[in-house]
Each structure stands twice: as C-alpha cells, then as structure tokens.
Amino acid sequence: MWRSKAGLIFRKVSSAINTSSTCAGTTRVQVAAIKHPNQVISAKPICLYSSAPLCVENFVNPNDSNEEHYGSYKPQIENIVTPGNFEYRDNPKKCKEYAEEDVEKVVRILKKEWEVQELEAELQTLDLNLNSKMIGQVFKTPDIESEQFVSFFRWALKQPEYVPSSGVMNAITTTICCKGRGEGLGLLRNLFREVAENHKGVVTTTALDTFIDRLWRSKREKEALEVFQQFDEFECKRGPKSYLLTFSGICMASMFDEAFAVLEEMKKAGYFPGNVGSAASKIIKELCKSKRPKEAHMIYLKLIENGTFPGIAALISLVDSLCKVAATPDVASEILGTIPSRERVNALKAYFTVIRTFCHNHQIEEAKAILSEMVEIGPRPDHATYNAVVTALCKAEEPEEAMPLLEQMSSRRLKPDVYAYNVIMASFSRAGKMQEACDVFLKAKQAFRKTSLITYKILIDGFCRSGDPKKAYQYFSELKKSGFSLNRDIYIKLISVHAIQGLDWHRAEELLREMKKKGFRPSLHTQSLVDATKKLKEEALQAEAGQVQA
Question: In residue terms, where are the PPR repeats (predicted)?
C-alpha cells in the first residue's frame, strides 16, 4: 500500500519537474524521505525561479524497502508533507497557466495616475494569483511609468502569498533602466535597499550591474560609485562586469585616480587583467574619438604598468590621436616601444603614422630612426613607409640621402615603385642637377618596362627650366613613342623654350600646329610668342641679307 502511494507522489514530482522548463525560471526539487517505510514518502518541489540548474537532491527510490537505508537517512528539508496536504510554492503549473485577465487588470490600473495609497487600495480589490511569471509579464508592458512599476512591486512584496525571486528583480531593474528617467532610477535604488533588508538573495549582481551601467550612461557618476561600493550591503559579490562597468564609466568621466583605484581592487579580487584589456581598448578608442588623447595616454600607460596590453586597435587609435590631435609624435614614438614582440607584425599602421608625422614636421632624423627600428625588429616597412621618408628627404633637397633607401628596398625584396623614382628625379631637377635626374631615369627604365607620363614630364620641365630645348625635345619624342597621352601643359612649355631660348620658330610653329591638331587650345600668349619669334627671326635674316648686299 505504501509503495503505491509513494509511486503516486513520485509521479507528481516527475510531473512538476517536466513542467519546470516552461516556467519563468528553473525548478529546484528537493525530495525528502521519512525514517520509516510505514510512513508515506512525501515531497515538496519548490519553484525558485533562479539561475540555478534543475537538480534533485537526495532523491530516494520509493520502491526501495530497505529499512536500514531509511533509518539512516537524514531529511534535507523541513516540514515534510503527506499526500493529503501536498503543496507547491509558486506552483509551476500555476506559473504556466497564469490568468491573462489578471495581467490585463493590473496593466489597466497602472496606466492611470494614482497616489501610492490609492493604487495599493485599488490593487487590493483585485483577486490576483500573484506569482513570478505573472508579475514578469506586467513588467514587460510598455507605456507605464517607472513609478507605477515600483509601487506595484512594493505592494506585491506586502502580500503574504508572494515570495519574490531574483528573476523578477532583474526584470524590474531592466525595465526601469531602459526608461532611464531620473525619478525612476532614484526609486529603484531605494527599492534595492528595501528588498535586500527583507528578502536575502533576491538582489543580484546582474541587477546591480544593469543599474550601475544606466547610472554611468545618465552621467550620474557619484551615484554609480556609491552603488558600486554598496555591493556588500546588498550581500552581492562584485563580478568582472561590475568592475569593468565602473572602470569604464570612471575613465569616461575623467576620474582617473578613482579609475586606478578600481584597477587595484580588481587585482586583489583576481579579475585583473582578465577582460580588462578589451574593456580598456574600447575606452581608449572612445577617448581618442572624443579628441582626448592625453587621458587615453594615461590609461594606456597604467595598463602597461600592470602588464596588460590593450590591443593593436587601441594602440593605433592612440598613436593617431597623439600625432594628429595633440601633435606630439615624440610621445607616440615612445609608445611604439611598449608593443609586445608578438604584436609588432600588426602595428605597421601605427609606425607609419608616426613616421608620416615626423616627416610632415620636418623631423627627418627621427623618421629615419623609426624606419631603421622597423628594419631591425619589425614590423616590415612597406612602400608607403619608405616613400614617406623618401619624399621628406627630397623636399629637404637631400635626394642623395634618398637613393640608399631605394637600394635598401630592393635588398629586402621590396621593389621601389615609380613614385619613389619620380620624387627623387623631381628633387634633382629642381636643384638643376639634370645629369643625376637622367641617371635615376635610366634606373627607373631598367626597373619598369613602362614608367609614367609624370616621369617624362619631370625631365622635360627640368630641361626647359635649365634652357636646353634640344634635350627637352629629345625626351618629348621618346614620350610620344612610349604611347602615353600628351597634355596641353607639355606643349606650351616646349613651345616657350624653343621660342625664347632657342629662337627656333620653325620647331615652335610645328609644335603649335601639332598641339592644335590634337585638340589642345593654345593661349593668346603662346600664339603671340610664336608670332613674335617668327617676326624677330625674319627681321634678323633681312638685316643679315642687307649687310651682305652692302
């Protein structure tokens, strides 16, 4: 007989376990056996709606009739019940089948404006089946003020049949924090105190983290710090997220002394470095985006001091901000020395930014030093890095210093591009060193089957400037054979040099006709220059002829 009753109880417990997956949480079932098999085995499943996994503790097989086993067993829960008064606390079936009309009644009331006492009196008139899922559904309703939610939850806490759960506490915290209004956040903080005093374990770290995050986002730094320091009062343990949220908020508020104190606490709690690097990386990038490189630099140095590298993305943002916003490439170059060797291969952009800034500021020696460091220990410099230094040297009228860099590139299996040759040729050309420019041109022709229009234009301009129309026309003829498209500027310069320097109006007139044939429109000055040169040449010939006759 007792076995059949035990089987009935066992089936009820199994049914309770099966229905637990549909509730707003997980079900923790505890089954206790009595000391003697003549007594009926009873069970009391308890729905706690917590994050704890479903488990059965000390479950006793009802078919086991071993009296010694039952005699030695010590029940783990009190108030053993018999089948006659078998009961549920927050019954899982009731949680699943809560009345929709109950939710609708509460929502209709909460959408109206009430004084607290009037609201509680109105709620008291309703015959509600209070349970965690029903209250959770109410909290999901939009268009209800935070004050109404808090008043409703306080009223529910006063009802003897309702036992609050951490899940519901998390739900109301999320709802109010999403609204983000000042009065609601203040009420929520008071609610935390009330619940923590009367219901141990209901206020969770998750709820406090959500609240802290909203306070930081609402620029309520003082309150956020106070809540962070009150975890012990709420009997909650700070987790990694608690520290990271606080650290991030403090940094964005420029409270760096407090931020470094939080880092020290994290180290003592065993959460540092952990995920601090990724969180700090976001902070550094955000500060740089807000044009606050000095603050970002302070955080970076503190992390490095504690043995944490915030990542390449944060480093690149910081270097870029220090160079462009703070105009302190010297500080940025010091940061490059803190990059771990394994990360150097990904730091090319940071090195290039520093070199480019040094070159822009005419600090060529510093740029060359960084380039030498890259050659020795990495990262491997690319075309853009070399070209930045080559360009800076040529602008400083030191093209001779740039030539070894081309050789270095070739030795490192990095073929110099046409741009590098053009820059050096242009520098020699501006200095009037046309022979050196021609030597570089020959090297460019050896390196490339086809150079560029700009390459020829540099030589043509240089010879035109130095007053050598024959050489200029020589490279012009070679340019036409190479198949590049000619432009108006080249024709005008060649016409001018032949008309003025060489007084060769025949060549100038020929170039003028060719220019018009290709669709380029000569300026009035160019046309007049050719006509004047032709007239002068004819007058000179006539004068010579007159002298011969005389």
Answer: 239-273, 347-381, 382-416, 417-447, 452-486, 487-522
Q: How does pLDDT run along the chain (550 residues), one tens digit per residue?
A: 444 444 444 444 344 434 333 333 333 333 333 333 333 333 333 333 333 332 323 333 333 333 333 233 233 323 323 233 323 234 444 444 557 888 888 888 888 887 877 887 888 888 788 888 888 888 888 888 888 888 888 888 888 888 888 888 898 888 888 876 667 888 888 889 888 888 888 899 999 999 999 998 888 888 888 999 889 888 889 988 888 888 888 888 878 778 878 878 887 877 765 567 777 888 888 889 889 899 899 889 988 988 889 899 999 999 999 999 988 999 999 999 999 999 999 999 999 999 999 999 999 999 999 999 999 998 999 999 999 999 999 999 999 999 999 999 999 989 999 999 999 999 999 999 999 999 999 999 999 988 899 999 999 999 999 888 899 999 999 998 888 888 899 999 988 888 887 567 788 888 888 888 888 888 888 888 877 777 776 666 666 655 655 5
State the first-to-last Cα distance of the chain, in angstroms, to the nearest integer. Answer: 158
Tell me the two tokens of residue 9.
Answer: 């109880």
Q: Tokens for 362? A: 């005419």
Letter for the amino acid at 296?
Answer: A
Backbone angles phi, psi at 26, to 5 degrees: -115, 155
Tokens at 544, concatenated: 């010579």
Task: Spell out the alpha helix ranges (H) of 361-447.
Answer: 364-377, 383-395, 399-411, 418-430, 434-447
> How buried is 21 (Cβ within 10 angstroms: 0-12 exposed, 13-18 middle, 19+ buried)?
exposed
CA–CA distances in Å: residue 193 to residues 48, 151, 196, 211, 298: 21, 15, 5, 13, 36
DSSP conformational letter for 431:
T
Task: Identify the three-state secondary structure at position 64.
Answer: coil
Give the CA angle between residues 429, 433, 437 to the nearest 5°: 60
Residue 74: which of 89, 56, 60 has the closest Cα?
Answer: 60
Query: Coil, strand, or helix at residue 45?
Result: strand
**Contact call for residues 178 and 218 (beta carbons, < 8 A):** no
Q: CB neighbours of 171 closer than 8 A, spacing ≥ 6?
A: 135, 136, 139, 140
Yes or no: say if 150 and 191 are a contact pair by the CB < 8 Å rule: yes
Q: Is the pTM of this model over 0.70?
A: no
Q: What is the C-alpha radius of gyration for the chain, rounded to an integer number of angstroms?
A: 42
* Paired sense of beta strands 26-32 and 55-57, if any: parallel
Separation of alpha carbons 441 and 313, rounded Å: 41
Please state, in angstroms and rounded to a whole number, the distance separating the CA atoms of residues 536 and 530.
Answer: 10
Q: How far lies 49's CA from each of 76, 131, 156, 231, in Å?
A: 20, 10, 17, 22
- Exposed / middle / buried, residue 38 (Cβ in 10 Å: 0-12, 13-18, 19+): exposed
Q: Coil, helix or strand for 160?
A: coil
